[in-house]
Structures are given as C-alpha cells and as structure tokens.
Amino acid sequence: MMGGYLSRTTWLHRLPAGLKLLMVAGMSVALLPVQDWRLLALWLAVVTGIYGTLGRDAVRRLCVLKPIVPLLVIIGGLQGLSTQWKDGASVVLRLLLMVLVADLVTMTTTMSALMDAVEPLFRLLRPLGVNSRKITLSVALVLRFIPVLLANWRAREEAWRARSRRRVPLRIVVLFLIETLRLADQVAEALDARGYGRAGRQP
Amino acid sequence: MDSRAVARISLFAAMIAVLGLLPTFQLPVAGGVPITAQTLGVMLAGIVLGPRRGALAVLLLLFVVALGAPLLAGGRGGLGVFFAPSAGFLLGWVPGAFVTGVVMQRLAKAPVVAAALMAAIAGGILVVYGCGIVGLVIVAHMGALQAMLATAVFLPGDLMKAVAAAFLAKAAEQAYPAALGHRT
Fold first, then answer.
1. Is residue A197 a contact partner of residue B2, using CB atoms and an 8 Å limit?
2. What is the SS3 assignment for A15?
3. Three-state secondary-structure class, residue B36
4. A39: part of which helix (H) or strand (E)?
5. Please, which residues have CB within 8 angstroms of residue B109's CB and are 6 or more apart in sequence?
6. B42 near B49, Cβ under 8 Å?
7. Is A57 helix (H, G, I), strand (E, B) or coil?
8. Which of the residues B12, B15, B40, B72 would you substitute to probe the A interface, choosing the one with the greatest number of A C-beta atoms within 10 Å?
9. How far is CA B123 from the centre of its chain?
C-alpha cells in the first residue's frame, strides 16, 4: 500500500521487472474465479512467506495495511451477513492477497526498471499518438518539480503565518495555482530554447 | 503536443501530488473521514487545463504512483493501491477530470463560478463516485446500494471541495486571465 523501495537487494530484486509485472497481472486474472477461501488463505500464507524471505524490513511493510483493515472488515461483514461468512472471507482474502502481491513488485523494483519494462507497451501504442519520449520527460518533470512546488507552498504558508495568527486559508491555493502555471510556461520556454520540441532532432 | 502542453500537464500532475501531501487541509469532518486537497486538485485539473490535458495530468500522476512513488494523500503509492477496494475512485479521477473539462467548456458563456461549480460536481463527484461504486461492486462484491451508502460519508467533504474549486477558479481567472485559456 505504501510506496517504498527496499534498498537491500534480495532475490526478488534480481528478477526482471517485466516478468514481475506479468506475474501480478496473471495472478489478478487467475484469482478472480477462485471462490474457495481455503485456497486463497493458502496463497496468502505463501505470499506472507515470501515477505518473510525478504527480511525484516519487508515484514515491517505488512503494517502499512492497517489503514485498509476497517474497510476490509466492513466489506467482509456485509458480505458475510448477506450471504455466507465463507463468501465474506474469500472476498477479503482475495483483496489482501492482490494488494500484497502488487506491493512486492513496488518493494523490489526501481522506478527506472519499471519504466523500461512498460516502454515497449508505449511503443505499441504509437499509432494512437502515444510518444514514449514525451512520457519519459513528463515523469521526470513530475518528480523534479514536486520538491520545487512543495518548497513554493511552504514559502506561501510561512508568509501567511508571519502576518496572521489565523489558520492558513484555502484561498492561498490560488496563488499556488497561478505560480505553478507560470512556472510551467517558463519550463516550456526553457525546453524550446534547448530545441526540445523540434521533430527529428533527438536521437 | 507542444512543449507548453507537456510542461503544463507535468507541473499540474506535480501540483495534485503536492496538494495531497499537505497536512494543512486534513479536516476531520464527516465522521472522522480525513479530507485532503488532492481531489480538489483533480477538479482543478479539468477546470484549468480542459478535458484532454486535465485527464492526461491525472493519468500522468497515477502512472508515477504506479511506478512506486508515494504521492497519494497520506503517502500511499505503489502498485498495491490499484488493487485496493478503493481503486475505482482512483481510476475514476481520469474520466472525472475529463468530464469536468467538458462541462467547463460547454458552459463557456456562464459566469466562471457557476460553470466551475457545475463542472466540479459533474466530473469530480458524479463521475468519480460512479466509478468508485462500480469498483466496490466488482472488487469488494458489495451491493450497489450498500456501496452508495458507504461512499455517502465522503459527500459533504467533496461538496465543500467543489464549492472551493469554483471560487478558486474565479480568483485564478481574475489574477491571471490566461489561467482558464482553454474555455475561449
């Protein structure tokens, strides 16, 4: 649930990112028709076991499931009341299982490896106007500008706090929004100045 | 798509992420449900960038989240969030921002506050909740009525955000007329 890469290299880190993605996709399809809660519980035990083999840091990540526990209890309870407790158990187990399996990929794969793994997909979509180079640039821009915008916001907040003892009002979002748009236009100019947008220039 | 569009889409995606990271607006309204400004960012994406670019900004954010960045409200992220019971709401942000932009363009002659309010309610609430409820029915095997009742908890907070989005749009247009350039 919580994003986060495990920095200590484990055996799962060494598997190719594409293979791991395919396994998650395959499991989500394969598990859909499974109704038997015992089978799902067995799989859950296997996946928890995998977390165990990845070391203590991985096991600690299981705690981040806490926020969805109330929701799972409600879902299981409703399902159990309206039909049988077994149906409730299988729905909850399947949800838990898929979240844990998907997070295994996030924990053991770097962003750039995942990016490389999905790039062939973007190339397939090129006839639809998908440009993988622009997607790569956009992802880099998002990651680069989050700290910039966050610092920007903090400065606005500080300016308000220095002048007023009241709570920071929602309307300073306006200044933040306009500043972001202006910054975007500057970034576009900088890209153009370096010849980014011109076709056929890039390798 | 020129570099201006790429830069606006990317920086807006970053802005939605930042709005979700802020603890400032996590008001404990409506039965203790934490409210963040992140869906406000989704509404603003459609209002400010228009249907296509707004939806692309949200899609870009979700893609970066799927790559493993913990950018959703409360520091969540990674592939797991797309398999959680609430995944329908998350994926609904994309058509939500699109519909917000479409309504905003259709109501180009209406006053900005009214147009933005209608747009935010149509896209940011109706479409997003629709997708979320469908998601709960499919993933969590909930009944449609049960799912609707369960999501109603979030409604007061999201209505407040739609009103906020409308006034923010008005203020942004006054301060920087180019902000809503896609409407004309």
1. yes
2. coil
3. coil
4. helix A37-53
5. none
6. no
7. helix
8. B15
9. 8
Joined together, the tokens standing for residue B181 give 């350039």
Residue of A82, A114, A175 lying closest to B67 (CB–CB): A114
- Helix count (H) and strand count (E) of chain A? 9, 0
Domain boundaries, chain B: 3-180
Q: Where are the domains of chain A?
A: 11-109, 131-193
Q: What is the pTM of this model?
A: 0.89
CA neighbours closer than 13 Å in the CB half-sphere of residue A36: 4
For each of chain A's 203 residues, which pLDDT tens digit applies?
A: 345 788 888 888 889 999 999 999 898 888 878 888 899 999 999 999 999 898 888 888 887 777 778 778 888 888 888 778 888 888 889 888 998 999 899 889 988 899 999 988 888 888 888 888 899 999 999 999 999 999 999 898 899 889 988 877 777 888 899 999 999 999 999 999 988 766 544 44
Task: State which residue of chain B sits closest to A118, comparing Cα positions.
Answer: B67
Give the mean model confidence (pLDDT) for residues B135-162.
86
Does B7 sit within 8 Å of A141, measured CB to CB?
yes
B34 by DSSP, 3-state: which? strand
CA distance B73 to chain A (A): 11
Those residues with Cβ within 8 angstroms of residue A121's Cβ, 6 or more apart along the chain or in another chain: none
| Torsion sign (Cα): B148, B153, B156, B160 | negative
**E strands present in chain A:** none
pLDDT at A86: 82
Instruction: Tell me which of 1.10.10.10, 1.10.1760.20, 3.30.2350.10, 1.10.530.10 is the CATH number of domain B3-180.
Output: 1.10.1760.20
CA separation for the pair B45, A130 (Å, rounded): 21
Distance CA B146, CA B164 (A): 29
Of the pLDDT bands very low, low, confident and very high (cuts 50, 70, 90), residue B30 is very low
Predicted local confidence at residue B183, as pLDDT: 67
Which amino acid is it at A22?
L
Of all residues in chain B, what percent are helix, strand and coil, respectively (each to 5)? 75, 5, 20
Q: Is the ipTM reported for this complex over the cut 0.95?
A: no
Out of A1, A141, A149, the one facing B76 most closely (by C-beta) is A1
Are A143 and B176 within 8 A, CB to CB?
A: no
